[in-house]
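Technical annex B. To support the medicinal chemistry partners, we prepared a structural model of the target in complex with coenzyme a persulfide, based solely on the information shown next.
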Amino acid sequence: MALKSDFDTYRLTDEHAMIRDAVRSLAEDKIAPRAAEIDRTAQFPYDVLEALTRAGFHATHIPEEYGGVGADSLATAIVIEEVARVCASSSLIPAVNKLGTMPVILSGSEELKKQVLPEVASGEAMFSYALSEREAGSDAAAMRTRALFDGDHWVLNGTKCWISNAGVSSHYTVMAVTDPSKGSRGISAFVVHKDDPGFSVGHHERKLGIKGSPTCEIYLENCTIPVNRIVGEPGTGFKTALTTLDHTRLTIGAQALGIAQGAIDASIAYMKTRQQFGKPIGDFQGLQFMLADMVMQTEAARQLIYAAAAKAERAEPGLTWYSAAAKAFASDVAMRVTTDAVQIFGGAGYTEDFPVERMMRDAKITQIYEGTNQINRMVIARQLLK
Ligand code: COS
C-alpha cells in the first residue's frame, strides 16, 4: 500500500477556483459599492439580483436537468461566501433560493420539480422556506399551521414567521400539520405560490442586520392549492425540512465565513494605513495578535465548511452533525472576528463610515437562523450519542 496522500483532495479544483474568481470580481464590481446603501435603505437589491442572475449565481444549485447550472455544494458555498464577503443581505439571494428549493429537490415528485425548478433556474422565480412559527421556533415540530385535504385541493391555515425574502419570493415551501395525532410524523411539506388564493405577506420586521433581505410573516387563510403541490408523501414533511437543513446549515456557515473574511480584509487595509504614534497601527503587536487570531479562526471555519460541503455532495450519513458544526463554528467565529474588527478600527469602526459595524450586525443572525447555535450544538451531541 502506497503511503502517499492524494494532495489534490486538499485543495480546490481549478473549476472551484475559477468560480471564486468570477464571483469575487462580480461582487467587488457590482455589489460592494451598493452594500452600505442596501443596509441603510433596507431595500431588497433588485439590481444585485439581476447581476447575479445574469452571471448564473442566483441559484447555482439547481440541477442541469431543470435548467440550472448544477453547481455542487462546494461551488454554491463559495458563491455565497464571496457575495457575503461584500454584502450579507445579497448573499441571501442564492442562500434562500437553495433553502426554499431543497425540499423539492430532495423529496418532490418529478412533476413538481419540472413545474417549479426551471423558473428558479432562469431567475423568474425566487423560493423561500417556511418552517418557523411564533410559538414553534427551536421546537419546530410544535407548529400549528394546518393543511386539510378537501377532496380536490389542499387547504392551508396558519401563520409562518421569520420568512427570509418574503414578498420577493414567488414560491414558498410551507410545512404544515396534516395529521395532528402523529406529532412530527403528521407534518407535510407544500409548495405555495404568492398568487394562490388565501396567501398574503405581513410587514417587514425591523432588524439589526441583513436589512436588504426582507423578513416577514406569511399568512395562509384558507389558502387553496392544487393536490400535486405536496412535497413527497403526507407525513414526510418534518424529515424533509430537517434533511434540507442538513444541506443548508453549511451554507449559512459559508455566509458567516464570507462576513468574517470581509471584516479581515477591511482590517488589514486599515492596519496598514491608519497611523498612530508615528507608525501604522499594524506595527503594534497587540493588534497583530488580534489579526492572527481572526485569520486562524476564519481559516479553520473555511476548512470545516468546505469539508461539510464535500460530505453533502457525497450524501454521507454524518452530514447532520457536520453541517451543524460548520454552521455553529463559522457563525461564532464571524461574531468574534467582526467584533474584533470594530475594535481594530476604534471609534471609526463604530461609525457607518466603514463597513465593519454593518458586518458585526450582519454576523449576529448567523448564530440564530437555521437553528440557534444552542440547537445546533444539541443536534451535534444527539447524533454522536445516538
Ligand atoms: N434528517 C432527517 N430526519 C431527521 C433529522 C435529520 N437531520 N433529525 C431528526 N430527524 C427525524 C427523527 O429521526 C425523527 O423521526 P422519527 O419520528 O421517524 O423517529 C423526527 O425527525 C423527529 O426528530 P426529533 O425527535 O429529534 O425531533 P425534535 O422535535 O426533538 O427536535 C430539532 C428536532 C430540535 C433538532 C429540530 O426541531 C430543529 O432542528 N429545530 C430547529 C429548527 C430550525 O433550524 N429552525 C430554523 C428554520 S430556518 S430559519
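Notes passed to the chemistry partners:
Residues 131-132, 138, 140-141, 162, 184-185, 238-239, 242-243, 245-246, 320, 369-371, 375, 379 surround coenzyme a persulfide (CB under 6 Å).
The first strand starts at residue 127 and ends at 130.
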